[in-house]
Amino acid sequence: MTHTAHDHAAAQGAAHQHATHQPGSHADLLDLDAEVLADHTASITAWLPVDAAPRRIVDLGAGTGAGTFALLARFPEAHVTAVDASADHLQRLREKAREQGVADRVRTVQADLDAGWPDLGRPQMIWASASLHHLAAPEQALRQAHDLLAPGGLLVVVELSGFPRFLPADAPESRPGLEERCHQAGEHQHGGHLTHRGADWGPMLTSAGFTIEGDRTIAVDVKGARSEAVGRYALNSLQRMRGTVAEQLSAEDLAALDELLDTEGPGSLLRRPDLGVRTERQVWAARRPAPAEYTEWRKARWEEVAGPNGKVKVVAKAFVTGRDPQTFEGIPGEWATTETGALMVSAAAGDGVKVGGIAVAGTAEVPSGTPLEFPGGQAGFAGGADGSYGLIVTDEAALVRSGITGIERYPYDPAWVFQGEYREAPEGRRIEVPRLTVPRSPGTFSAPVDLAITVNGTEYVLTVIEEVPGQAQVIFTDLTNGDTTPDIGRWLVLPLGAPGTTLTVDFNRVTLSHHHLAPPVFTCPLAPDGNHLPIRIEAGERALVRHR
């Protein structure tokens, strides 16, 4: 299914090929195309707007694997299903996969996409390079690609803006402009067969339900280090073109072309030092939108991490209860509650503590939610009531110091959404779980219910912690820990319910422990005993992204 820029010549070239100028096989040309344009293909895969590395990719019109192997290199955990109409192309692709040691990451499917699409699973990325414009109904193919992709998945369309040029405009010396005239003859004869070549795919992608996340034009100008490959590429391509345009060329142009294609002659292409590959590649990256609720959750999650009061900005926290004055590391002043349950702070003028913008010089009440200010530009707030308050100090500069710029996650996959049920636990149950201190220290937590969930036919029952009133915290480990996720496990945060309550459990919303954001501050609990899932939960957050 994949075609090079000169594939338009292949259909009729066999009937007209000059006896002494037979081109190599189409597979040979595809391999040359991959070799010559390798750096440009790598630059495209590096540019892709990906925040969750895909693990399942489909390469539509894979040919001999130019895109397949570039994608495998870019995404080391991915598996690629390579689809093509040619059995020969796929056989060569499999041979190359074995040679490169990635055969276990490649599956090939022979299919004519104009005749119907086979079962290709639920990929998180589809790559279509120089293939869609050959389909009889590309608009329909885009709709099929949309429905095939997992929600949140990415479709990448790569097209050549025009057929490559190999010779300078004034070459050859005997017939300047020969290559351009050959292209014009080919366009005249076969232009109607490729009506979507050079099309603006943006409107068609939008019409098919995609959201355009990026598009770019890449100028291709290859020469120098790849001159030998460029020579073979030019020779094979122009040999194919000759078979198509020979009857449209003048006798003088045909003779000049034959001189270039004569590998033994003094005018051979392979002897020219001025060969290059000049063209442009257009790239569109289009996403099938994930469910709106998930998108909104992601925004809220990033706000929780890096917003005005984001966890990564927290430099100190404390829990205030009791009437005796208390001091806390990293928080100026003395803190206590009154007999009526109000929160109070005592500080000297030089301590630099402000409550609601007013400097404290003595003792002041701290209403819940009132902004606090501390020396060095630090801020804070207290929340609570009735003699129990949480106190937080934040520093805007902490986000910059952390280097955190995002969260790496698995691609959204609706297959990781299940129904769960809260199960009864012994009344008043409290459990002991180690906290992430150095060294580890014990912590005791309320564990009011269990969560039962069935995954792939197996029921698992996990202990629920209630560290924040009304919030169910399910800390678990699975077989991804220490591999693609942290070894300390991850969290599911859910609304707490009574035994018998059913709820949606979406593993796409699994989060990292707050401990990763500010380890000295968030000495979070580890997973309770028994909260291990003996499967790979390839969903949710994986790691923090930091400046390199």
UniProtKB/TrEMBL annotation:
Domain Methyltransferase residues, every copy: 57-153
CDD domains: AdoMet_MTases (cd02440)
Pfam families: DUF1684, Methyltransf_25
Superkingdom of the source species: Bacteria
Chain intervals with Low complexity compositional bias: 10-22
Disordered: annotated span: 1-25
Protein name, per record: Uncharacterized protein (DUF1684 family)
Source species: Amycolatopsis sulphurea
